[in-house]
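Readers outside the structure-tokenisation community will struggle with the description of the input data as it stands. Showing the layout once, in full, would remove most of the difficulty. For illustration, here is how one protein appears when written out as sequence plus structure tokens:
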Amino acid sequence: MRLPTVRFTMQHGSLLRVLAYAGSVMSCSLLPQVALDDSGTFEAVFSTVNNLHLIDRGDGNSIVGGASIGTFTVVKGSGNPFAEGSVGQAECIPLIKKGPNSIDLEAHCTFTSSPDDKLFGLFKRKSGDIAAGTGGQGRLELLGGTGKYSGITGACPYKTSYMPQNTVVTIARCDWNK
């Protein structure tokens, strides 16, 4: 028994477009889909270099501001989007008001793990110092973001250490939710 022959007429290049489309749909459906959790915990290390400027206000008072740029690494994580081993760039704009016996530090930060995935944070601290060999403890607030960080909020106690050559190392433990 002979099967009937069916002919399709396509414009030049149409078959290639159909095959390319079908191939892309099939390959996308085969890619692993990463599910993002709604809450969790993570610990991260932030390593940055400060470029700060100080304005002396007299009587032991000063205002310090500038930029702090470096990296962040998730060293422990309960899952996505903060999987263990995740890394990215940290960019912060700190503003520090210092008195003879006080400090009021706020640093607005953006943590970027890809061009579409940015987490916004605010470091706050009212103890310690910013001189090399010092540091202090404070709180990092997670303020949402873009991409996989969209809608994420949370709180992170942190400890920071100021090293020689304007290097700062901060360790934070965060509880977050969406």
About this structure: The chain has one domain: 39-177.
